[in-house]
Write a structure and sequence with these properties.
mainly alpha; abc type-2 transporter like fold; 2 domains; 15 helices; 4 strands
């Protein structure tokens, strides 16, 4: 009971110390609000309100039908354009797409020929160019098919493929980006808070005060882990409710309490990693350099930004020992697919084992560091 009391009192001291640090408080607020919103939209590849013009040299019902098929939210209403204005408009960035319908297009289509339509694309707008070209091709083919069905009978295809999306039917990439951004902020803040707390003790000289008290390195470490982990867990719940579900209007398919339970397990592992980094680093600049070497690979190779299965097998094998890999896996499973504990328990177990390894390593290194300081 004495140890539990010491851990609790030291944790309260950590919370008060964090509250008196306005820079860190502002950073926490920013990380779980504006950073999540900007991160969700930074990687968005949606085609939204893409400007398109049509050079209609046919002036037939079919060409007019194609022109009327482009409408928000993917495209702006198609604007007619003259041939001499196509290149200047693309050079000026007025339009991303210019669809050139040749003369006698409808007549050739009805005659069974294969006339060609030219699609001019401003490829400097990479986020819209590739997907927009695919959408344009689909729209044009659908309108041609519907037009022909009104003039002659076509054989029904033997197979009808129907695609249904259980989650995110509109394929809004902002929703996926929001969870990735939230996951990244959780990992980064947990490491920064615990590592900075230990370095702050050393720089302010309060670490020596703790050494002369009847405290063990285990108690010091546990206090920093539960206090800083609690802060990250609370702001995560608030960000998930207020930012992800509120501002970004993302539905949650699974259990939020189950997700937060997994977050707590993840925080156990990454806060221990923060203690480990804070023990190795002697100053905040050194910790910043170590963060670059540790956090960026953990985030980039976790499977959130790029599919885990598309990485080289050697990288996949190495990243199985990283907590972020299992964190991203169960976060996507719970929040996107509505998975329960019967599905995500292997990730939970892996996080607990990795956390124990990090905790043991950090505790051993902290004991050596404190012994040397004493």
């Amino acid at each position: 009971m004495k140890k539990l009391s010491n851990i609790f009192q030291l944790g309260i001291k950590e919370l008060l110390s964090l509250w008196r640090d306005p820079v860190m408080v502002i950073f926490i607020i920013y990380a779980f609000t504006f950073a999540v919103i900007s991160g969700s939209k930074a990687t968005s590849g949606d085609v939204k309100n893409a400007p398109i013009a049509i050079l209609d040299q046919d002036q037939s019902p079919l060409s007019q039908r194609i022109g009327n098929a482009f409408f928000p939210p993917r495209f702006k209403p198609a604007v007619p354009i003259q041939a001499e204005d196509v290149d200047p408009a693309l050079d000026a960035g007025t339009y991303t797409f210019v669809l050139d319908i040749p003369p006698n297009f409808a007549r050739d289509v009805q005659a069974g020929k294969q006339p060609k339509i030219q699609l001019n694309i401003d490829a400097t707008r990479m986020s819209q160019a590739f997907l927009g070209a695919s959408y344009t091709q689909t729209i044009v083919m659908d309108e041609i098919r519907a037009y022909l069905q009104g003039h002659k009978t076509q054989a029904k295809p033997p197979v009808d493929i129907v695609v249904r999306y259980k989650f995110n039917p509109t394929q809004t990439t902002v929703w996926f980006g929001a969870i990735v951004a939230l996951v990244n902020q959780i990992t980064m803040l947990a490491v920064i808070l615990t590592g900075a707390a230990l370095i702050r003790e050393r720089e302010h000289g309060t670490l020596e005060h703790l050494l002369v008290m009847p405290l063990t390195p285990f108690e010091i470490m546990m206090a920093k882990i539960w206090a800083n982990g609690l802060v990250v867990l609370v702001v995560t719940a608030l960000s998930l409710k207020g930012i992800v579900q509120g501002v970004l209007d993302m539905p949650i398919a699974g259990s939020v309490p189950l997700f937060l339970s997994g977050v707590a397990l993840h925080l156990f592992s990454v806060t221990a990693l923060g203690i480990l980094i804070g023990t190795v680093a002697r100053t905040m600049p050194q910790m910043g350099l170590l963060m670059i070497l540790v956090i960026i690979p953990l985030q980039m190779l976790s499977g959130g930004n790029t599919p885990y299965q598309s990485m080289p097998e050697a990288v996949q094998f190495i990243m199985k020992a990283a907590p972020t890999t299992h964190f991203v896996a169960f976060a996507q499973a719970i929040l996107f697919r509505g998975a329960g504990l019967d599905v995500v328990w292997p990730s939970f177990l892996a996080l607990f084992v990795i956390g124990c390894v990090f905790f043991g390593s950090a505790l051993s290194l902290l004991r050596k560091s404190l012994s040397a300081a004493a």
